[in-house]
Amino acid sequence: MKSFSVLCALLVFVYGIAAETCLNPQVTSTSYVTEDATILTNVAFTTQFTLKCSNGVNDISLYAECEGKSLPAVRLSADNKYQVSWTDDVKKARSGDYIVKLYDQDSYAAIRKAIRNGEDPATIKSLAVVVLNNPGVYQGPWINSELLAVFLAIGVSYVAFTTKSKLLA
Description:
Elements: H1 2-19, E1 26-33, E2 42-52, E3 62-66, E4 69-77, E5 81-89, E6 96-104, H2 105-116, E7 128-134, H3 145-168
Antiparallel strand pairs: 1-2, 2-5, 3-4, 3-6, 4-5, 6-7
């Protein structure tokens, strides 16, 4: 009888571990990037996504990795909506696609272990991938309006004085 109860406890434990693993994850995402950097020093990157698992698992702790940065994925609602966001310096933010790799708790622990042991963390498979597109940030016009006004004032003054001197001569 004791071995039967140990077997049942072991099966419940294994079932509990298997129930938290997301099988065949499907991700739908939307993203936002700060596009006007005329007065900003940092560009904000935000992606919201919904994770659906074929086995119906909910409430998964997710972590993200983008360009070498480890980021937490914040759970927004009970229907598996998550958000990942970070900021980057305006001069360092490049235009193009940013690949955001999503990891569950077990694979994130494996990445940390690989880094600690000096191994390549790229060998660990991600749960899902989200692509965030940055069209580029607007840093203002090439010539500021104040500078253009000064050049126009100088040009108008030059034309006025040369025309006046020709009329008086």
